[in-house]
Predict the structure.
Amino acid sequence: VQLQASGGGLVQAGGSLRLSCAVSISILNINTIRWYRQAPGKLREFIAGITSLGSAAYAGSVKGRFTISRDNTKKRVYLQMNSLKNEDTAVYSCYARGPSMETWGDGTLVTVSS
């Protein structure tokens, strides 16, 4: 199973970006797909996750600003990020866990400027 994150870039504070995590197999049987981020000099942290039933969870730091969603047909999970702040600057990676599998994808860099 391969994951490919994309959609990062440079954005001004207050702006928006949408990240995409493309999965190489059907996501219908993947129990959970999550977004994590790692800022320079900091530990990787959980940002958002969505289950196969569509139940979503968020870190407190992004709740109300970020929205995770999934498109089973396109085998993608999205992270819509609004009202971006400088402290959202990080490399964002997606992670998937399903029956007998667990994998990480490459990250995509998000830089928020003042």
